[in-house]
Specification:
Helix content is about 40%, strand content about 15%. With about 280 residues, the chain is of the alpha/beta class. The protein has a 5-stranded mixed beta sheet. The chain binds adenosine monophosphate (AMP), fe (iii) ion (FE) (2 copies) and zinc ion (ZN).
Length: about 280
């Protein structure tokens, strides 16, 4: 009997807010006997080259990225898959997005300052290493300074989407993010839809050109995933899934491989990508 093939299509490395190197992700994926993975760092594709090298012929690596876009006065995450990573306008977009991240962190730092908490950009940069700056790095600085006891507490009290120091990153709109991913030959998937407040907003993303829904995710189990599966079928969307593993530190065991999709869904995704490239 042929063994089933599975893929984890949502993984982070230290090129954004994860802790693993791309090689470590590939090593773990191989140990877990995954057939394919996608590294989907926030606003960065810097991990791809290393992942491809580490993988060789042993495991398939699908180019991926996670973009943040403005939506209904808040933010939505979009996954791009199968784009040409050397596409100049896409590279330039990612560069701009990383600068916007730095800008936003500074604005959040000003809000913290107003509350008597002083953090320098250097401290956040040090916490991020080579990664695209994000709130988790700032959260770590707050933990190290003893302002809060945990990253979770930092998000709850200060940094989370509904907390007092929240600032939106995004001037990038959903249609523009989709356009840029398409222009680079990729397809766009709405990440962890449970994060967006209203299900009725999903069709709006579809109208903007989003072709897929991340139905399976570590924070969308059982009936919730089933609800999104139905929505995906209703709108004729590609179905994807992944663990959204950020490495060590959030929970005890890294999430990689805990949410996988059958390889047939990767085939569907690759067919859609090929159709994009053929046009
Ligand atoms: P940013 O990219 O700067 O908007 O930060 C968003 C990232 O922060 C997400 O991708 C998660 O990795 C992380 N995050 C969001 N909410 C929480 C939370 N409550 N606790 C820990 N990490 C979180
Ligand atoms: Fe993240
Ligand atoms: Fe996300
Ligand atoms: Zn993610």
């Amino acid at each position: 009997m042929p063994s089933e093939k599975y893929a984890d299509l949502h993984l982070h490395t230290f090129y954004s807010d994860g802790t693993f190197s791309p090689s470590e992700v590939v090593r773990r994926a191989r140990t877990l006997r995954l057939s394919a993975v996608s590294i989907t760092d926030h606003d960065s594709v810097e991990g791809l080259e290393e992942a491809l090298q580490a993988a060789g012929d042993s495991i398939e690596i699908l180019p991926g990225v996670e973009l943040t876009a403005a939506f209904h006065g808040r933010e939505v995450h979009l996954l791009g898959y199968g784009f040409q990573i050397k596409n100049p306008s896409f590279s330039s977009l990612l560069g701009q997005r990383r600068l916007a991240r730095e800008d936003r962190i500074q604005k959040i730092m000003e809000r913290l300052h107003d509350r008597g908490i002083d953090v320098s950009l250097e401290e956040v940069r040090r916490a991020a290493g080579q990664g695209a700056l994000g709130r988790p790095h700032l959260a770590h600085v707050l933990v190290n300074k003893g302002v809060v006891r945990s990253v979770d507490e930092a998000f709850q009290r200060y940094l989370g989407d509904h907390a007092p120091c929240f600032i939106k990153t995004a001037t990038l709109t959903v249609p523009e993010a989709v356009r840029q991913i398409h222009h680079a030959g990729g397809v766009t998937v709405l990440a962890h839809p449970f994060h967006i407040v209203e299900d009725s907003w999903i069709p709006e993303c579809v109208e903007a050109g989003v072709e897929g829904l991340e139905v399976y995710h570590s924070e969308q189990q059982g009936a919730v995933a089933e609800k999104y599966r139905r929505i995906a079928v209703k709108h004729n969307l590609l179905i994807t899934g992944g663990s959204d593993c950020h490495g060590l530190g959030r929970g005890k065991k890294p999430l990689i491989g805990t949410v996988c999709v059958p390889y047939a869904l990767v085939e569907d995704l690759k067919t859609a990508i090929r159709e994009k490239t053929d046009v």
